[in-house]
UniProtKB/TrEMBL annotation:
Residues annotated as signal peptide: 1-22
Protein's name in the database: Peptidase M23-like protein
Biological source species: Archangium gephyra
UniProt keyword terms in alphabetical order: Signal
InterPro entries the UniProt entry points to: Cell_wall_metabolism_enzyme (IPR050570), Dup_hybrid_motif (IPR011055), M23ase_b-sheet_dom (IPR016047)
A molecular-function term among this protein's GO annotations: metalloendopeptidase activity
C-alpha cells in the first residue's frame, strides 16, 4: 500500500474497507488528512481534492475514475464519490440540531433519517434522499469534541456499496493542523471578481458584433422566450425553431493551440466536449426525467481555460450566483439566468463577475457572468452549460427537476464557418457532434 502525501501523513495499514471486504495492499493508497483528522484506504486510482475556499465546514473531495465502459459512454473520466468534512464551527451537543436543520431544509424531498454504525463501532446519523446533481446522502458523526459531515453521491438514492466502502474505511484522529492554518479565503471573499482590462475589451468587442447584428435586423434587442406548446410533460425536448441561444465565450478563450488552431494567433475557438466531457444527447450528463435531481441529459462541456469570459446562454433574470452546496457542490461556482420558464445554468466558474446580483436583469448577449474554471471537481477547465425548462428550486435556490432542452441552433457572433450565415456577420450552428470546433 502506498501512502499519499498532500497534507497527508503516514499511517498504519487499515485492515478492511467496506463491510468485511479485505483490502488488497497492492491496489490501495492510505490517505491521512492532518487538518480534518481522518484517514482511510482508497483505490490507488482515486483522487483527492481539498476545498479550495473556506466554507462553514472544511473538507476533501474523493473522486473515482469511471469504468472503461463508462468512459466510452460518458466521456468524463472521474466521478464525485464523497466529500469528507470537519464541521469545525460545530460542537457535539449541536449534532441533533444540525440533523433537524438539514431535514427541515429539504423537507419537500421527504428525506430519510437512519442510524448507522461505522466500521470502528461509532454511531452516525445518515440522511438519505437529498437532491443534487446525483442522489446525495449525508452522514453525521462525532469524534471527541469534533463533528464530521460526510457527503456521499450515488447512482440511486441511499447508501450504495461505494458509499459503504468509504464509511467502512474511515478512521478518526485528532488533527495536527488547524483549518485556519491553511490561509484560505472564505467562500464569500472568493465568489466575485472584477473584469481585467483584457476581459473588458473582449466583452466590448462582442457587444460591437451584437449591436451590428441588431441594427441589421438579424437579432432582436432582447429575446423573451415563450413557453412551449401545451403538452404532456416529458423528460426533455428540442427547442422550438423560434428559440435559440448563444455560444458562451469570446476571444479570451485561448484554451487550444496546435497546427489547426493556434489560439494565440486565432483565439476564440472551443469544441463540443473537446476536453473529454459530454455532448448533447449522450455523455456524462445522463440524468434524465428525474424528479428530485438536476436533469442534465442535454448539458455540454465547452473547454475554456481558467479566466476566459463566460456568458449565459441567454439574457433574463439572475436567479442564482454562488457556490453549489450539499448535493450540488460538484457544480462549484455557478450562475443561473431565467427567461420565462427556461433556465440557463453555467457552472465550474473560477469566479463570478461583480454585479451579478440575484434578481437583476441582464442582457445576455454581452454581459459577462464570470470566468471559466474547474471549480467543483477534478477535471480540466471548462464551461458546463445547460438549458432547462420548468425546473423547481430548493429552499436555498438550487435547481432540480424539470426538463432538459436540446438546442435546435446556436448563435455565434465572430464565426466564419457557421452552418447558416447572416448578412451582418456571424450566424448559426445547426449541426452538433462530439468534438466539433466552433468559433464564438
Amino acid at each position: 500500500m502506498k501512502t499519499r502525501m498532500m497534507l497527508w501523513a503516514s499511517a498504519t495499514l487499515l485492515a478492511a474497507c467496506g463491510e468485511g471486504t479485505a483490502v488488497d495492499p497492492a491496489s490501495q493508497t492510505l490517505v491521512r488528512d492532518e487538518v480534518i483528522g481522518v484517514s482511510l484506504p482508497l483505490p490507488a486510482q482515486w483522487s483527492v481534492r481539498r476545498d479550495e475556499v473556506l466554507f462553514d465546514t472544511h473538507g476533501v473531495f474523493l473522486n473515482a475514475p469511471t469504468s472503461d465502459e463508462g468512459v466510452a459512454q460518458t466521456g468524463h473520466e472521474r466521478d464525485a464519490v464523497a466529500r469528507i468534512a470537519l464541521a469545525y464551527k460545530a460542537r457535539p451537543d449541536q449534532l441533533e440540531e444540525l440533523v433537524r436543520t438539514k431535514l427541515a431544509e429539504y423537507q419537500e424531498f421527504h428525506p430519510t433519517r437512519t442510524e448507522v454504525t461505522l466500521a470502528d463501532g461509532r454511531t452516525g446519523i445518515a440522511i438519505t434522499g437529498l437532491p443534487g446533481t446525483q442522489p446525495y446522502s449525508i452522514v453525521y458523526t462525532v469524534d471527541g469534541e469534533r463533528v464530521y459531515e460526510i457527503g456521499l453521491w450515488s447512482d440511486e438514492p441511499g447508501l450504495d456499496e461505494r458509499a459503504k466502502q468509504v464509511l467502512g474505511g474511515l478512521r478518526f484522529q485528532a488533527p495536527t493542523k488547524t483549518v485556519q492554518s491553511l490561509g484560505l479565503k472564505t467562500a464569500r471573499e472568493s465568489t466575485y471578481a472584477e473584469l481585467s482590462a483584457e476581459r473588458e475589451q473582449a466583452a466590448a468587442d462582442r457587444k460591437a458584433l451584437v449591436m451590428k447584428a441588431i441594427l441589421a435586423g438579424d437579432l432582436p434587442q432582447q429575446q423573451k422566450f415563450e413557453d412551449p406548446p401545451v403538452r404532456a410533460m416529458s423528460c426533455g425536448f428540442t427547442a422550438p425553431s423560434t428559440l435559440y441561444w448563444q455560444l458562451q465565450w469570446d476571444w479570451t478563450n485561448k484554451f487550444y493551440s496546435g497546427a489547426h488552431y493556434d489560439m494565440k494567433a486565432n483565439p476564440g475557438w472551443s469544441a463540443m466536449s473537446g476536453n473529454g466531457g459530454s455532448w448533447w444527447g449522450t455523455g456524462y450528463h445522463t440524468r434524465f426525467c428525474e424528479t428530485n435531481y438536476a436533469n442534465q441529459h442535454y448539458a455540454n462541456d465547452w473547454p475554456a481555460q481558467v479566466g476566459a469570459n463566460a456568458y449565459a446562454a441567454f439574457g433574463g433574470t439572475v436567479e442564482w450566483t454562488g457556490w453549489g452546496t450539499d448535493g450540488f457542490a460538484t457544480l462549484g461556482r455557478y450562475v443561473v439566468v431565467r427567461n420565462n420558464g427556461y433556465r440557463s445554468l453555467t457552472a465550474h466558474l473560477s469566479s463570478i463577475a461583480s454585479g451579478m446580483a440575484w434578481g437583476t436583469e441582464i442582457d445576455g448577449y454581452y454581459k459577462v457572468i464570470g470566468e471559466a474554471g474547474s471549480s467543483g471537481g477534478d477535471w480540466a477547465p471548462h464551461l458546463h452549460a445547460r438549458v432547462s425548462y420548468g425546473e423547481s428550486k430548493t429552499a436555498n435556490g438550487q435547481p432540480y427537476g424539470g426538463e432538459t432542452v436540446k438546442p435546435l441552433r446556436l448563435r455565434c457572433f465572430n464565426c466564419n464557418n457557421p452552418d447558416v450565415s447572416v448578412a451582418s456577420g456571424g450566424g448559426y450552428y445547426n449541426d452538433f457532434f462530439h468534438g466539433r470546433w466552433m468559433m464564438y
